[in-house]
Amino acid sequence: MKGEPLTRALRQTLLLLVVAGAGEASAHTQDGSLGDAPESTDYYQVTCSDDGSGPPASLVAQVQNRGPAAASTVSVVVHRGIAATSTSDSTGGDISVSPLVYVNGGDGVYNVFVSKAGGGALNYTLTYHCMTGANGGGLHTGTIIVFRQNQ
Q1: Collapsed DSSP state (helix, strand, coil) of residue 130
Q2: At residue 110, what are phi and psi to the nearest 5 degrees?
Q3: Which domain holds residue 78?
C-alpha cells in the first residue's frame, strides 16, 4: 500500500511523457492567439478519461483575455452531445478571468471553441479540467487537449 501513490505518480508521469511525444498537450492551461479578423476562432478537442482518480463526469473551463488592453471580448464555448455552455472575459490585459463553466458529458471528447468579438489580435489563456463529479465537482481526472484548427 505504501508504494501505491508512488506507482500511480510514476504511471501518470510516463503517460504525460508519451502524450507529449505525440504532439499533444496535457497541461491544464493552453495559451493561444487570435488574429486580426473579427471572426477568428481556435478549435480544440479535450478528451476526458479515467486516470485512476475515477471516471469523468464533467469538463470545467474558463478563459482569460490577456490583451492587448484595447482588444475585444474573448469567449470559450464548450460542447459535448446536446450540452453546451459558454463564458467570456471582456477586459484585456488584467488578471481577471471569466466565470468557471462546466458541461456534464462524462468520458470522451469535448469540443472547445475560443473566439473573440471584434477586430484586432488578441491573446488568451484557456483553463480546463476534467472532473469526476457532476457540475465540475469531485476530483481532477484524465485530461488531454489537442489543437485542431485556427479559423
Answers
A1: strand
A2: -110, 140
A3: 25-150
Asked if the structure places residue 146 within a domain, the reply is yes
113 domain residue, yes or no: yes
**What global pTM score does this model have?**
0.81
Reading the chain (151 residues) residue by residue, the pLDDT tens digits are 454 544 444 344 333 333 333 334 444 999 999 988 888 999 999 999 999 999 999 999 999 999 886 668 999 999 999 999 999 998 888 889 999 999 999 999 999 999 998 888 899 999 999 999 999 999 999 999 999 888 6
Rg, Å, the chain Cα set: 16
Q: At 129, which CATH number? A: 2.60.120.380
Please report where in the chains the cell 463529479 appears, as a residue.
133
